[in-house]
Amino acid sequence: MCLALPLRGEAPRLAQPIDCTLGEDCYIQNYVDHDPGPGYADFTCGPLSYDGHKGTDFALISRAAMTAGVTVHAAAAGRVTALRDGMTDGVFLEDPAAVKDRECGNGVVIDHGEDWQTQYCHLQKDSVSVTKGQSVKAGAPLGRVGLSGRTEFPHVHVSLRHDGKAVDPFNPDGDHACEEMPRRTLWQDPAPHYRPGGMLSAGFSDAVPAYDHVKSGRAATVHLPADAPALVVWGFAFGGRPGDRVMLEINAPDGSRIISHTVELENPMGLFFRAAGKRRSGSAWPKGVYHGQVSLQRDGQHLGTQHTTVTIGP
Ligand SMILES: [Zn+2]
């Protein structure tokens, strides 16, 4: 017997609101918070959320990707009822008070009728390409992913509201059954796949890189001199949980293993990186292409691997 309730007031079916491939050049960092108390939980009961979060955060893997330009699209047809542009990207990182009451940053609100609305936040300064009152089709470009308002990483925050209340498109009935594949979503088929964590990028460097360089996409080098003081491989990842294992490996041009190192996480981490490497022992590294590999594992399950190479030589 089917006990499903009818859809509430012509709920829109949402298209992916960002021009990227989930699991490749973007991922979902946070979902709507389903925990009514001071804790937080995404619709699977996992920790990819934070207290009071009312939307879905589609994130890019680096600030370099943001600078290259990634379009934000209307998730469904409707009319633009509000927008803001002109706020500088990255201000929150330097002066959190500067975004007070303007947490969304540069953003767009679309009315889909029947009291359904979507809102898109943190767009790049001067990128908003629609006007107030404009009718848009599903998939219409609205602007570009940025870092405006209250955000520390490049992403578009998309919230869905009905009668002014937040609705999780992954679990619109709010039954919070802790399932990764809810019975009904408000996404067009196929709904975005839930990833409980994974690798975002990996690279080589001659020292443990600054975290800021990892996040910005500037940490990796593809070429090192033979007298580089050390050979370090690092991996950038999201959704870490205590007990997760990060496995880092470097293989020499002749295929021999230079390092194989496992780090266990002690704390939950939304975004993090780990690095491992070896100091030069002789006067020079053998020339050639070195292969690096960084994987994330949870309870024996593989959550992702990133491969990277560096060429050592003149
Ligand atoms: Zn958000």
TrEMBL record:
GO molecular function: metalloendopeptidase activity
CDD domains, per database record: M23_peptidase
InterPro entries, alphabetized: Cell_wall_metabolism_enzyme (IPR050570), Dup_hybrid_motif (IPR011055), M23ase_b-sheet_dom (IPR016047)
Organism for this UniProt entry: Aquicoccus porphyridii
Domain (M23ase beta-sheet core) ranges: 53-169
Name of the protein described by the UniProt record: M23 family metallopeptidase
Keywords: Signal
